[in-house]
Amino acid sequence: MPRFCSILILFLLLTSCDLNIFKETDTDVEVVSEKNNETLTLGSDPEKGKIVYYANCISCHNYNPKKPGSIGPQIYRSSKELLSKKINFGIYPKNYKPKRSTKIMPLQPHLDKEIANLHAFLNAP
Ligand code: HEC
């Protein structure tokens, strides 16, 4: 009888351990998916940037940003600061040497929230 009791206790212990393991994995999965959501909303997405670029920039810049376009210069590797200043205000960062001295490019301040995505696309390898 005591042996049966200890086996029963052992069994109960084991199952409760198992349950704990399941709970832990559940929370792990939740944390990971929360993190993924965070990256999706806060991070930058080169694929989204590509769509924004094709929709708003290739009338003047080349669809391949490494090459000069019909009107605008090549803009591959543009920094976030350059993009933000040029798109929002038509100006350049301090001490930056513009590729052209013209001031043809129209302001597109409505694209301000897309700059992180544009930057990710324009700096992708
Ligand atoms: C109407 C034509 C036109 C459109 C549309 C346009 N650009 Fe431009 N862009 C230019 C021209 C022309 C220049 C050269 C400077 C000037 O004349 O403003 C330029 C310059 C730039 C520069 C500075 C390059 C350097 O290093 O000197 C960046 C960065 C840039 N464009 C990004 C963009 C992005 C991103 C978009 C789309 C959101 C865009 N442009 C849309 C015509 C355009």
Write out key terms for the chains shown.
single chain, 125 residues, mainly alpha, 56% helix, binds heme C, electron transfer activity, heme binding, heme, metal ion binding
Provide a concise account of the structure shown.
With 125 residues, this protein is mainly alpha-helical. 56% of the residues lie in helices and 0% in strands. It has two domains: 1-42; 46-122.
Q: What features would you describe in this structure?
A:
- By secondary structure, the chain is mostly helical.
- It folds into 2 domains: 1-42; 46-122.
- It is 56% helix and 0% strand.
- The chain contains 4 helices and no strands.
- The protein is elongated, with a radius of gyration of 27 Å.
- Mean pLDDT is 81; it is low at 19-41.
- It binds heme C (HEC).
- Heme C (HEC) is lined by residues 56-57, 59-61, 71-73, 75, 78, 82-83, 86-87, 98-100, 102-106, 108, 111, 118.
